Amino acid sequence: MKVLIFVSALSLVGSCATKRYTEKIQDIKDNIKFEDVNQINNFANTITADELSKNVYAFSSDENQGRKTGTLGHHNASSFLKKYYIKEGISSPLGTDNYYQNIPESFFTNEIKNSQNVVAFIKGSEFPNEILIISAHSDHLGTIDNIIYNGADDNGSGTAAVMEMAQAFKIAEQKGFGPKRSILFLHLTGEEEGLYGSRYYTEHPIFSIENTIANLNIDMIGRVDKLHENNPNYIYIIGADRLSTELHYISEAANKQFTNLVLDYKLNSESDPNRYYFRSDHYNFALKGVPVIFYFNGEHADYHQPTDTADKINYPLLEKRTKLIFTTAWYLVNSPKRIIADKR
Ligand SMILES: [Zn+2]
Predict the structure, then answer these.
(1) pLDDT value at residue 110
(2) How far away, in angstroms, is 303 Cα from ligand 1 center?
(3) Where in the chain are the domains?
(4) Distance from the CA of 220 to the center of ligand 1, in angstroms?
(5) What pTM was computed for the model?
(6) Which of these, 94, 188, 300, 315, is most buried using a 10 Å CB contact count?
């Protein structure tokens, strides 16, 4: 009898706690509402497969010699990005025409020369001090034995996605729908060498880390892995729920409202042996307590091979995935309240 009472008391506690948790999650979900869906769709639709394709081809072209950090090829790629932002009328947070966060040679090991993160900025209208960072690494493996590693998926795809989103947010601003919070578009260097660019940024932030509301990081989103050959309408979401419950549900709500991709959480499992959560630039932001999402298509036969070329990218799929990130970002910068990192 005693045992029985004990058990039922325990199960009572258990069910109350569960109910409270369920209610909390329901509250979070109920609070996520996209205002003006048509308007958001209008701006999302400025992100097109055609423009993404144009930028992936240009960025991963042989001219950039595989973009190894600190080489002429990577400097050329950085210059390409800078010219793009100037052309689009998107400013730098560092002032006038200085789009480079320079990283000295001494910060690198392995004989890597000085390099740079490329930064562009749209200022928020209501909460300008709160910053969303949308990032993608710009470097790749370079030229080895005279063979160019173009890195079209890794990470021409993420780079082109950032460029298109910046343009879409700029068009929105010009039409009177500028973001309420600020957005930093961040092209990171030195990722392939060991996440140098993101570590440099988080150690020398342009805007304080405390005011950085989230980091959406993109590394390879233009291809399909073996597991999804028969259903390419997917993207792996990694890290979204690790620091902020809310961020995970915002990402789900954006997808449900706008893109209807299958959000695959397999690689987000803490027991996943690949440990992707630790392997791209978002991790340096997560280490500082900034909620992150890492968008990734998974590995494929051309991963880190000279055959990762622009002709193999699925551009309509790249467009759809970019729209998911754009609409998630839209919510994060326009929601009435800054997201909470409840699991920090
Ligand atoms: Zn990469």
Answers:
(1) 81
(2) 9
(3) 34-334
(4) 6
(5) 0.94
(6) 188
